[in-house]
Design goal:
56 residues, mainly alpha, 3 helices, 0% strand, globular
Length: 56
């Protein structure tokens, strides 16, 4: 969901308003903008690592 919203040009603060944590101690709350940004960065890093290993 966050990736789809980012592709639409939304900022981490706007994305945060649309997301709700579904499990764990913070269930029902919204993630912080920093958490949203961290999730997006980690996803990009994993995607880059996969594409590099696929080339080898």
């Amino acid at each position: 969901m966050a990736l789809h919203l980012r592709d639409q040009g939304m900022s981490p603060r706007d994305i945060r308003k649309r997301l709700v944590i579904t499990t764990g101690a913070k269930k029902g709350q919204r993630p912080s903008p920093a958490t949203v940004l961290r999730m997006l960065c980690e996803h990009e890093e994993r995607g880059a690592a996969v594409s590099v290993s696929a080339r080898q």
